Hints:
The chain is an alpha/beta fold. Helices cover 44% and strands 18% of the residues. Helix 2 links the parallel strand 1 and strand 2.
Amino acid sequence: xxxxxxxxxxxxxxxxxxxxxxxxxxxxxxxxxxxxxxxxxxxxxxxxxxxxxxxxxxxxxxxxxxxxxxxxxxxxxxxxxxxxxxxxxxxxxxxxxxxxxxxxxxxxxxxxxxxxxxxxxxxxxxxxxxxxxxxxxxxxxxxxxxxxxxxxxxxxxxxxxxxxxxxxxxxxxxxxxxxxxxxxxxxxxxxxxxxxxxxxxxxxxxxxxxxxxxxxxxxxxxxxxxxxxxxxxxxxxxxxxxxxxxxxxxxxxxxxxxxxxxxxxxxxxxxxxxxxxxxxxxxxxxxxxxxxxxxxxxxxxxxxxxxxxxxxxxxxxxxxxxxxxxxx
Length: 328
């Protein structure tokens, strides 16, 4: 027979144990490792798109999912260590955005943790997936087609500028897409009969130097190859293009809304939305190997007529008719 005092003691111990047991039974909140090659501020609107679609799949940061952010601040050489850090924290999956370097770093860091990416280059050629329809490993995501659109950008510049205009292509030598895009643009230029040359920049000072050089030339224009560091510095590009009178074409509309002349490419916002959807689906149990790499179904052209007028560029009606967005 249990004495009253012993019964109360047992009851109190059980009461203390119940909350502990309940907490132990609660599922652990999954953690997403978010790896990006640039910095937050220039990409805040795109990160918001990722959060929006993640929410639509049922996951809200701080409520039922945690996110560990790693921003390389434009220093691509930091990405491998940042990816290794996320792997060491045993995250549920890694979202790798901001061009090809983050996903290459993530894939090198893990063969088991799912990785969802946005890439500018062909993910099969990069060795990220076995095929677009059946990725087959731990990696899937969204291919922006950016590297395949160089020909179209050259064509648009030919329609905008006098026939004797030389076009300089700016690449970031630290971005693997430079090695892929350079020969493709050379082939496209030969097909179009367009004279092009290549310059490199990996820092703000080198971007300044490129525009200063172009400003000294006559009949010179610029094609800015896709690169996350360049996109993060879009205000600098727009300012320098205006100061030195250099017509420039870009891959993303964000340059044009900031005051750039013209852009042609897939929607970055759509890509970030899709990555959020895939992240949610993987958290719910689907495998990256079974999720096809998503490809854009439309491309957008934006043109800034105010900038065109300031640069003395007469935009033909046939080019205006192609534009999805015209800023006046």
